Amino acid sequence: QVQLVESGGGLVQAGGSLRLSCAASGRTFSRFSMGWFRQAPEKEREFVATISYNGGNTRYADSVKGRFTISRDNAKKTVYLQMNSLKPEDTAVYYCARGLEVVSTTPYDYNYWGQGTQVTVSS
Prior knowledge:
This protein is mostly beta strands.
């Protein structure tokens, strides 16, 4: 069974930075892509970033490109999301998820999800 636990969320002022972490259990972490999604109140869950099994391929939503960076450490079974130049519209619950052997931007290709961590950006 795969479990994902996010951490690192919090309250930050606009222009600030946060680093989210997602620790995974299980023996297959290094075989699958990982992704970050977010969901704001009364909005659908949306794709933020994804990274391939070996870190060689990444994709970002246009809204975060150039500000957010996804990375992973397979030895630690952890995926990260470095968020810089945060904006109030980045406020949401952020979820990490385990995807397929290839990267994908659709949540339907992710079969394990964490419980989420709240990120709040004040103006």
